[in-house]
Amino acid sequence: MMHSAGSANLDRSQSFTVVHLVDGTYELFRHFYGQRRFNNGQDKPFGAVVGVLHTVLEMIEDGAAHVGVATDHVIESFRNELWSGYKTGEGIEPALLAQFHPLEKALAAMGVVVWPMIELEADDALASAAHSATNDERVQKVCIWTPDKDLAQCVNGDLVVQVDRKAKTIRDAAGVREKFGVEPALIPDFLALVGDAADGYPGLGGIGRVSAARLLARFGPIESFPSKVLGERHKLALLFKTLATLRTDKQLFADVEELRWRGPTEAFAGCVDRLGDKRLLERSLKAAPR
To answer: What pLDDT, in 10s, does the model give residues 92-116?
Structure first.
């Protein structure tokens, strides 16, 4: 089902644990191009970084106590070795690319757990963190903050949900079925068939969203397809499924309490001076648990 994103804001005083996982790379892009609409092309050196930090602080002010942010420290991953057309950092504007690493340092200084990914992608970190969090009996809900359709495969009933900040909606398993026509577990198969332009693989020509959903409803995962269905393209479809399947085996934390935000570090004051926005320090100190 689709819900208003406002319901993802849960009070810190509640007895159960809600884990909030943020796609830092997506947020950086969102803020960079959002500011472009107003700055007449005069990009502030750390404008997008500041925007992401304010977004995370807003989440904390709204009750998020356990927060982890995943970033792409580099754009390339192991998937580039599997498919030559897979996305790279080529074409990313220098003014945006220059803010990738400062974002990671600023988040850490603000006291937020951050996972900079190199061989894997930020999406893999989010998937792995969600997997680890759901194995903790204290965790009652995991909110993955990104509209990326790859992450729909991580949705699990209403335990793990996907929050689309831009559309102001929360997508649970019923919402995934409504949007894509398949169960969350079949999202990698769905993307393998229809392709994902953002990630750089085309899918199989002649198969659209409706026909892909119909095939998967009839036969199940691609591995179960009769050989005649895809013919010589079966092997290619399995390759695309590998590209679309997120890793869940990266150990990012041993205990969910490691994700609890306890306030900014002493280094944050100097960081804020470099970023040029004193409101960040004031806001973080005010939001810090007493």
So the answer is: 999 999 999 999 999 999 999 999 9
Tell me how crowded residue 269 is: count the other CB atoms within 10 A of its CB.
15
- What is the radius of gyration, based on Cα positions, of the chain? 20
Contact, 243 vs 79, CB < 8 A? yes
Burial class (CB in 10 A: 0-12, 13-18, 19+), 278: exposed
List the one residue out of 139, 171, 136, 137 whose CA is nearest residue 156.
171
pLDDT, tens digit, 9 for 90 and up, residues 153-174: 999 999 999 999 888 899 999 9
- DSSP structural state of residue 120: S
- The pTM (predicted TM-score) of the whole model is 0.93
- What are the C-alpha distances in Å from 165 to residues 9, 91, 188? 12, 25, 23
162 bridge partner residues: 144, 171
The CA-based angle 8-10-12, given to 5 degrees, is 150
Tokens of residue 20, six digits: 């909030």
Residue 162's SS3 state is strand
